[in-house]
Design brief:
This protein is globular. By secondary structure, it is of the alpha/beta class. It contains 7 helices and 9 strands. It has a 5-stranded antiparallel sheet. β2 (19-23), α1 and β3 form a beta-alpha-beta unit. Helices cover 29% and strands 24% of the residues.
Amino acid sequence: IDQVRAAIDFSTLTRAVPTAYLDWETSKAPTNQRLWLLARGLGIDPPRVFYKRMVNPLVDEIGPLSAELAQHHVGFIVIDSKMFALDSGAGVGFHEPITDFYTALRLFAPAAVLVLSHITNEDARTGTPARPYGGAFAFNGPRVIWEARREWEIEDATAIVFTCKKANYLQRKPDAFGLRFSPTTQHMMSEEAVRTTVRTSIELSTLDLTEVR
């Protein structure tokens, strides 16, 4: 891994869009903290995000939810995470909760959707090539898939490597890249808090872009 220091050029962004975070896994407080830390690392003010704590499967909420987000002109939606957003599938084919989930996402159009998914414990432990949990339908449903893995050889920071596994509409898969999250003495946290969270969270005050060759 070649570590390449680079600043994100926000002047290249074509337009900003309202963003929604649909959360089945945590709650608003830790999500706000992560957003604040990311914004601090990028040197920007924390953006406003339409946050919604989710409980029921997405297919049960998609009608009123898609209308609500459209009223807020939301252009980008984060699903955290797919397995918790699925219906139970009791009494139906094993693939139906997956296909119903991706069909429901169409109602968010024209907003772009980022779905956070998981891999099996075995794939995570062994580091072997993996696919999203849920079988062939979980892999075939998305148009683009990025795999994120922790780079354990980097011990002084939290480094995440992203590798594109699928890119339906692109001529070629994008190159792999990485993000490195590092705490500094200027971080607005106690020194002890930084030491205990740096290996498991995204506590940061600087952001390094890493190119993987």
